[in-house]
Amino acid sequence: MATQLEGVGASITFGTSGFTANLVDLVLPEQSREALDTTHLGTTTAKTYKPVKLKDVGEISVTWQHDPTATKLIGAVAETITISYPLETGQTTPEKLAFTGFVIGEGGEEFKVGTMLLTKMKIKVSGNITRTAAT
Q: Whose CA is closest to 26, among 111, 133, 135, 122?
């Protein structure tokens, strides 16, 4: 039976700014690749396509417990960001993802009675993601 992972223990580390927060939600990117339209005037039954060579690695969404003193990253330069998976039983180091990224969206706090104030952030991944296996 496959291991059933729980998100508790996951973390995100910003290499230059040192930003840290109490994470509530972390959504990894959905990678995509565009299709190049190769249809021409001699095509007779349906449009034709071929895959482009480069993929878009996507965006990461993060939500954390609001901290008014936290560093604002919306205007910061790209930096190395590392995401650590939760440590599983028997591991000494967790699986990690490392990439260059920068913040493209920050804020979105909602003030509601009986609800913890949260802040949201969107991070654009620039380049490829390097995966380091757990040990």
A: 122
